[in-house]
Amino acid sequence: MTSLKERLGQNPQRKAVVTDACQVLDQEVADKSGLGGIAIKGAFSIVKGIKPGFVEEVVDGLLDDFLDALEPIYREAQERKEAPGRYLAANGDRAADALLAITDARAARSTRAVIQKTYDKLRPTAKKHVSSAAPRLGQMLDRHVS
């Protein structure tokens, strides 16, 4: 059985996944509303302003770890003969925990103070936001594994 990293982590598929993931991220941020949404949009704007292409670099740098983190969910979907994306969406909290474990570790190692400060400010509500993104992440997964 081919792993997610083997299927999606190699070029040219990798480049398409990174591009698609950045679009999903943009859509999720754009959909945020209220005071929390303002904070998320502001923080995302700061991160995007660090340098052109920074978000794409970060997504590309995290992709292998993210694919490894989602591998158990992907395998379970295959074993149950379910669409991986639908299964991921149904297991959004689990997926969020797996993905946030990666970003927590990366943020802790960051040498950029603005990244650490922004991440620390947003982290308390991150699980809710990542879980709510699970349907879009699942759709993205299905687009690339089918």
Task: Tell me what you see in this structure.
- This protein has nine helices and no strands.
- The two termini are 14 Å apart.
- The protein is mostly helical and 146 residues long.
- Helix 6 (92-109) crosses helix 8.
- Helix content is 82%, strand content 0%.
- The protein is globular and about 40 Å long.
- It has one domain (4-145).
- The mean pLDDT is 92.
- The longest helix is centred in the middle third of the chain and has 26 residues, at 54-79.
Distance between the termini: 14 Å
Mean pLDDT: 92
Query: Helical stretch count?
Result: 9
Quickly count the domains.
1
Q: How does the helix and strand content classify structurally?
A: mainly alpha
| Largest sheet data | none
**β-sheet strand percentage:** under 5%
Spans with pLDDT under 50 lasting ≥5 residues? Answer: none
Global geometry: globular
- Compute the number of strand runs: 0
Provide the gyration radius in Å: 15 Å
Relative helix content: over 70%
Order of helices and strands: HHHHHHHHH
